[in-house]
From TrEMBL:
GO terms for molecular function: DNA-binding transcription factor activity; transcription cis-regulatory region binding. It comes from Bacillus salipaludis. Residues 2-56 form the HTH lacI-type domain. It comes from the Bacteria. This is LacI family DNA-binding transcriptional regulator. PROSITE patterns: HTH_LACI_1, HTH_LACI_2. InterPro entries: HTH_LacI, LacI/GalR-like_sensor, Lambda_DNA-bd_dom_sf, Peripla_BP_I. Keywords: DNA-binding, Repressor, Transcription, Transcription regulation. Pfam families: LacI (PF00356), Peripla_BP_3 (PF13377).
Length: 327
């Protein structure tokens, strides 16, 4: 395998000149550049990206840590973040923590060793000090890490209000809020918990019966079975607000097993508006997060931080109601 010294010898220049051509540093005549490029082509030389990043002090790589990339929301999030990062000249290094403290800590160490320019955190299982000691630009997605770490989120509280207001307008008299995902440390830091606060706020001056149901961490089949049992025990539930479209889809499956008619007997509202929301049957009414705009903003904020610019700490985007066939 050819080395940079081989390229310098073939081109008849110094190693420093080859390095300056590779990293586009300093003045190099066009004739000299072409001579170096020709030598690289003849030797089939492949530059060492890590060495180049050390020379530049910048790798153009951003680390992304998500709790579970198989989840429809985080799958779409990852796709959009990668797309906008690429447009800005960055590559993403994806880490799937699965809510595991040890795994997340090892991923963070790996990202540091790989000289990433910054980290986007969409998982949060470590203590705050672990993030503050990184000395890297960090953007947090929809969760609180520390007061001085910028956050990008949607209006979770307003989304909870929108969903609940619709169920009230549809004359539901007994509402259930289904949520999950609390089986990890620091779950109280998740801004998504504000969806439930919005639910409660909209109901506080009504006489509508309501309660919240926490789904145990588990696979889809176990969750659906759990929902079936709850709907059997409370057969008069006629309105459901689910904290995600994935949970709403499980509620729909449970209703199908119980032969409950949607929306005649029970109305369901989800949250996120990921792809499955319009594909399941019946198509799901949901609160739409502007995922693409949130991802674009996240990458813009990261790029500014990498360049040493100050950024706004709290960045909250509005949500909207998308009504389909479940209400």
């Amino acid at each position: 395998m050819a080395k940079i010294t081989d390229v310098a010898e073939r081109a008849g220049v110094s190693v420093t000149t080859v390095s300056r051509v590779l990293n586009n540093r300093g003045y190099i005549s066009q004739a000299m550049r072409e001579k170096v490029y020709q030598a690289m082509k003849e030797l089939n030389y492949q530059p060492n990206e890590l060495a180049r990043s050390l020379f530049r002090g910048k790798s153009n790589i951003i680390g992304l840590i998500v709790p579970r990339v198989s989840h429809p929301f985080f799958s779409e999030l990852t796709y959009s973040l990668e797309d906008y990062a690429y447009q800005k000249g960055y590559k993403l290094l994806l880490c799937n923590s699965n809510g595991d403290v040890s795994k997340e800590r090892k991923y963070i160490e790996m990202l540091k060793k790989n000289q990433v320019d910054g980290i986007i955190m969409s998982s949060h299982v470590l203590d705050v000090e672990d993030y503050l000691n990184l000395n890297l630009p960090i953007i947090s997605f929809d969760r609180i890490l520390a007061e001085n770490i910028p956050i990008v989120s949607s209006d979770n509280f307003g989304g909870g209000q929108l969903a609940t207001k619709l169920l009230i307008q549809k004359e539901c008299r007994k509402l259930a809020y289904f949520y999950g995902g609390i089986g990890v440390p620091h779950h109280n830091a998740l801004l998504a918990s504000a969806r439930y606060q919005g639910f409660l706020e909209e109901l506080k001056n009504t006489e509508i019966e309501h309660f919240a149901i926490v789904l145990e961490s588990g696979n889809t089949d176990s969750n659906v079975h759990e929902i079936v049992q709850i709907l059997q025990e409370h057969s008069d539930i006629d309105g459901v607000f689910a904290s995600s479209d994935t949970i709403a889809a499980k509620v729909i499956q449970a209703c199908y097993q119980l032969k409950k008619k949607i929306p005649e007997e029970i109305k369901i509202v989800g949250y996120d508006d990921v792809g499955i929301a319009s594909l399941i049957s019946p198509p799901l009414t949901t609160i739409s997060q502007p995922i693409k705009k949130m991802c674009e903003l996240t990458i813009e904020l990261m790029a500014k931080q990498i360049n040493g610019e100050e950024v706004q700490l709290v960045n909250r985007l509005p949500v909207s109601l998308v009504e389909r066939c479940t209400t």
